[in-house]
Amino acid sequence: MGSWVLTKRVVFPQDTNRAPLEYSLIHSLNESLSVGVEYDYMEGQVHPVVIYRALEATEGRPAIILGTSSAWPSGEVDGNAATLTASQMLNDDLNFSLGVAQILETEEWRYPGSISYQVKEDLSITLMYDGDNLHPILTVDRSGASFQFILLGGEDPAVAVSLFQ
User: Fold this and answer.
1) Residues with Cβ < 8 Å from 152, sequence gap 6 or more?
2) Residues 15 and 3: beta-carbon distance below 8 Å
3) Mind listing the pLDDT tens digit for each residue in 124-156?
4) Which fold has domain 4-164?
5) What is the DSSP code (8-state) at residue 61?
6) How far apart are CA 112 and CA 73, in angstroms?
7) CB-CB contact of 85 with 69 (8 Å)
8) What whole-number distance in Å separates Cα of residue 165 and Cα of residue 150?
């Protein structure tokens, strides 16, 4: 039947150009395909989410993922983005991804990427680049939940809480 993930993201400085409150609901249909919606509470906008792993990673080849979702966490662009991402585990604890994204409303191109380090089983650190800014993320995983502490652009604090079913 697949799993569900409900996420709430809150940006604490309300005077930024980012949505201060967003929700997402994602359903994994199978190991390669997830669908859902993201909702920007303040703007009243709904964005579709589709994540499709076209190729699974092997030792010599990264996973290739196609998708669409909101342009969050960028504070420079709004709307939905279509993405193509390559992601590879570099070792048991280190993951690297690099992608290309088109912002659908403005047809701008971005080149996001990330590097993530698994400190221990339930704790990871990620540096996420959205094509304009770097966002450090600390993730704490618990049974049925995940908590992310984010510094948007390295300065605006945000929290994301995800519940899994």
Assistant:
1) 11, 16, 18, 73, 75, 133, 135, 158
2) no
3) 999 999 988 999 999 999 999 999 999 998 988
4) Porin (2.40.160)
5) B
6) 11
7) no
8) 23
